[in-house]
Amino acid sequence: MDALAKCSVCGRKLRADRIVILDEKERETVLHATCFNCKSASIIFLSSNQAGLVSVGMATDMDASEVKKIFGTSAISADEVIDAHELISHNDILQLVKNSN
Length: 101
Description:
Layout (H helix, E strand, L loop, with lengths): L1 E5 L6 E3 L3 E6 L3 E7 L6 E9 L2 E9 L3 H7 L7 H12 L3 H8 L1
Antiparallel strand pairs: 1-2, 3-4, 4-5, 5-6
């Protein structure tokens, strides 16, 4: 069975057996697709609304199993970003890296 979507790199049709559903809601679906022809990978966001079906894709170097591991995990909070900034701005980066090993 062939999918309707085409690879954004080589233009070939994406095969349904190379598409993995990462998340599915009533009107939103997130997919990972790997082109059988050129092996490029994309994460595709599909959304349906009154205007129709909208899709946005982005290239990725991760395979489907890697994306599954991180997809849906908690986003970094603003507090975590501030903590990281304070840590970096008040410490020598090389020393932090050496201490982490």
